[in-house]
Design brief:
alpha+beta, 3 domains, 7-stranded antiparallel beta sheet, 5-stranded antiparallel beta sheet, 22 strands
């Protein structure tokens, strides 16, 4: 094909996805979508294979491809122009029930030529807890409505019976309806732009360009893999829920122009809802692979072909129905994501040509805190603390990670500002800021996470409730690289206000200054009532290289900016600060002491 025409069509496909994303965000009224960017929009070929992966949570690119194929199988001979299909069953393709896929066929001249697909985490799904995360669910039947595929719009006409049935099963049906309409609008824009592209260049030319684009992506990734060293790299992730410790074990093997991700050795599926299905694990490993290995390659079916995954059935990364999975996105899926990020980082660091592309693990422990109750205006409010999307950048082999710098699997993630959250929920923030000593120490420091505290404010019911789920707070998960340390762990504290509150500091600026009994929590449903407070700390990114090799002036700057404490500077980095300045002699001596202590510890082992 003429290379100029190919390039124009390629860029037009990017624009199709981009305009559809903008539509989705503008129509949606949910903060998790338009503020946190918990969304995905992509294009697929007529057979359901991935054509153009869009931004958002990248875990969904491969799962939505399987969703398209599931619809093709289920509705063979019944797929018409103007149809829209819904799928959210985790055992068919979705990540968990709250992530609804809307899938639209695109016909040209009466012939199916492509699909558009999108998802959002809907406002509610009718699970046992508002918002969809159900940490106490014992099976998927407690986790809300789920469908392996149904026709929501038939030939351009909304099926009112299906629509009404869906909204009859959820809290705040008006908000769920808005979520659904935002996805319908998104797919309509994608279809209109695709048809305009085909009108201009012809169906055969566009189809040929799409096929070439996929072949090009496969060729470029295989070429890159051949330039990287052969070998095997391993990673482990640990999850702690109510004292039950599970692990995700990954061995990644690179041979010639292929990569195999083998999760043999991972724990059996859990009775808790942090499990994930096979399709979810596949999405979890591709989420970091797309940006880390294919940052300059179009994300499509060609990238998927050189990759193989082994996930033992009945394990935490390939659970069997009806195991609960509502917490999967911040549970086993993210552990798969972290393990894949770690092994890919190790492989890149082993290559002289690609060492600068390596990164330590980024924001590795999402905290899915969903709040629900009546807001200050008397209406119902359900939603997430979007700080979970703020993240923390892992360090690189040439520089520090970005403080509160997002995450690898979602290049456009962000948190809402404080005013947005306080306008949505009857709460008041005491503080929200970077967390000292949270970034993983190293020659290059991991980006910091953050901390926040909220209290009820102007609530008609005296407060509200919230759901905490995730992977616990016992184990560090943002692994370091090449001798770098892991980022700090998460922490959740329920501060029970004292009976006498007349001396309480209502504008406390630290956890220690919030009066009352401090109770560590990490899993379940809790009240935030009266004068109680909720404190949350989220993990930093992993470090790269030995902390004792970090430039002392960099440590001095970190201390001055409140990113690293003087104690950590002395005991971890071996840098002694006096009067705000590095003491060169004391630093040299302290680093010598720490290296000697390491030798003693190694000899003892």
């Amino acid at each position: 094909m003429d290379p100029i025409t190919f390039s124009i069509i390629r860029h037009r496909l990017f624009r199709v996805v981009e305009e559809a994303v903008i539509t989705l965000k503008h129509v949606s009224g949910s903060a998790i979508t338009n503020e946190g960017h918990d969304l995905m929009v992509s294009l697929y070929r007529a057979d359901g294979s991935l054509l153009m992966g869009g931004v958002g949570f990248l875990h969904h690119l491969t799962s939505a491809a399987e969703a398209c194929k599931a619809i093709i199988r289920r509705f063979a001979g019944q797929i018409h122009e103007g149809d829209v299909y819904l799928l959210n069953d985790p055992y068919t393709a979705a990540l968990h029930t709250s992530d609804i896929y809307l899938i639209s066929p695109i016909h040209y001249g009466g012939v199916l030529v492509a699909w558009s697909a999108c998802f959002v985490h809907v406002y509610d799904i009718g699970a046992m807890n508002p918002g969809g995360f159900a940490p106490d669910a014992v099976d998927i039947f407690s986790e809300g409505f789920s469908s392996p595929g149904l026709k929501l719009i038939d030939g351009g006409e909304l099926r009112k019976d299906v629509w009404d049935t869906l909204l009859n099963m959820v809290r705040s049906p008006e908000m769920v309806a808005l979520d659904m309409r935002s996805m319908i609008a998104c797919n309509n824009v994608a279809k209109d732009r695709m048809l305009a592209l085909i009108d201009k260049y012809g169906v055969q030319t566009v189809d040929a360009a799409c096929g070439t684009l996929i072949e090009q992506s496969e060729m470029l990734l295989r070429q890159r893999l051949r330039e990287l060293p052969n070998g095997r790299w391993q990673s482990r992730q640990y999850l702690d829920v109510k004292g039950e410790i599970s692990r995700v074990v990954l061995t990644m093997t690179k041979q010639d122009d292929t990569l195999t991700f083998d999760f043999t050795g991972s724990s059996p599926q859990s009775r808790h809802s942090l499990n994930c299905t096979r399709w979810a694990s596949l999405g979890g490993l591709f989420a970091p692979l797309f940006p880390l290995l294919c940052y300059d390659i179009t994300w499509n079916e060609g990238v998927i072909r050189p990759i193989q995954m082994i996930a033992p059935e009945g394990s935490i990364v390939n659970c069997t129905r009806p195991a609960p999975v509502s917490v999967a996105t911040v549970g086993a899926i993210q552990s798969v994501n972290n393990a894949a990020c770690a092994t890919i980082g190790k492989m890149l660091a082993a290559s002289e040509a690609y060492a600068e592309e390596a990164t330590a693990v980024w924001h590795a422990n999402h905290f899915a805190i969903f709040m629900f109750g009546r807001n200050q205006r008397g209406g119902q409010a359900i939603g997430i603390l979007t700080e979970t999307f703020a993240g923390a950048g892992g360090a690189r082999t040439f520089g520090d990670g970005v403080d509160i710098g997002g995450e690898v699997p979602n290049p456009i993630s962000r948190m809402a500002n404080v005013e947005t959250m306080e306008a949505t929920f009857p709460v008041r923030y005491l503080f929200r800021r970077r967390m000292m000593d949270s970034g993983g120490p190293g020659r290059f420091r991991g980006g910091t996470g953050g901390e926040l505290a909220i209290v009820p404010h102007d609530s008609p019911d005296g407060g509200l409730h919230y759901v905490i789920s995730g992977k616990g707070s016992k184990f560090p998960m943002s692994d370091g690289l090449s001798g770098g340390f892991a980022g700090m762990t998460n922490d959740y504290v329920w501060v029970h206000a004292p009976k006498e509150t007349h001396n309480t500091d209502r504008f406390a600026q630290s956890l220690d200054s919030i009066r009352g009994e401090h109770e560590a929590i990490s899993w379940g449903v809790f009240p935030l009532m009266g004068d109680d407070a909720l404190y949350v700390r989220w993990n930093g990114g992993g470090g790269v290289g030995d902390p004792l090799d970090r430039a002392p002036e960099k440590v001095q700057q970190d201390v001055a900016e409140g990113i690293v404490s003087e104690r950590a500077a002395r005991d971890v980095y071996g840098v002694v600060i006096h009067g705000g300045r590095v003491d060169d002699g004391a630093t040299k001596a302290r680093r010598g002491e720490l290296r000697a202590e390491r030798l003693v510890e190694e000899a003892a082992e």
